[in-house]
Amino acid sequence: MAELTHFYQTFQPEHYDIYLDINRATKTFSGQTKITGDAQTAAVSIHQKDFTVSAVQADGQDVPFKLDAENDAIRIDLAKAGKTTLAITYTAPLTDTMMGIYPSYYEVNGEKKQIIGTQFETNAARQAFPCVDEPEAKATFDLAIKFDEHADETIISNMPEVKTENGVHYFDTTVKMSTYLIAFAFGELQSKLTTTKSGVKVGVFGTKAHKANELDFALDIAKRAIEFYEDFYQTPYPLPHSWQLALPDFSAGAMENWGLVTYREAYLLLDPDNTALDMKQRVATVIAHELAHQWFGDLVTMKWWDDLWLNESFANMMEYVATDALEPDWHIWETFQTSEAAAALQRDATDGVQSVHVEVENPAEIDALFDGAIVYAKGARMLVMARALVGDDALRQGLKAYFNAHQYGNAQGKDLWAALGDASGMNVGAIMNSWLEQPGYPVVTASVVDGQLTLKQQQFFIGEGKEVGRQWQIPLNSNYDAAPEIMADTTVALGDYAALRSANGKPFRLNVGNNSHFIVKYDQTLLDDILANLDQLNAIDQLQLLQDLRLLAEGRQISYAAIVPLLSRFAASHSTVVNDALYRVASDLKKFVTPDSTEEAALRQLFDQLSADQVTRLGWAPQAGESNDDQLTRPYVLSAALYAKNAKAIADAHQLFVANRDSLATLPADTRVFVLRNEVQNYGSADLFDMLLTESRQTADASYKADICAALTSTQDAALVAKLIEKFEDADTIKPQDLRAWFRGVLASNAGQQAAWDWIRNDWQWLEDTVGGDMEFTTYITVIAGIFRTANRLAEFKAFFEPKLNTPGLTREIQMDTKVITSRVSLIEAEQAAVNTAIAEVVK
Question: Which pTM value belongs to this model?
Answer without folding.
Answer: 0.97
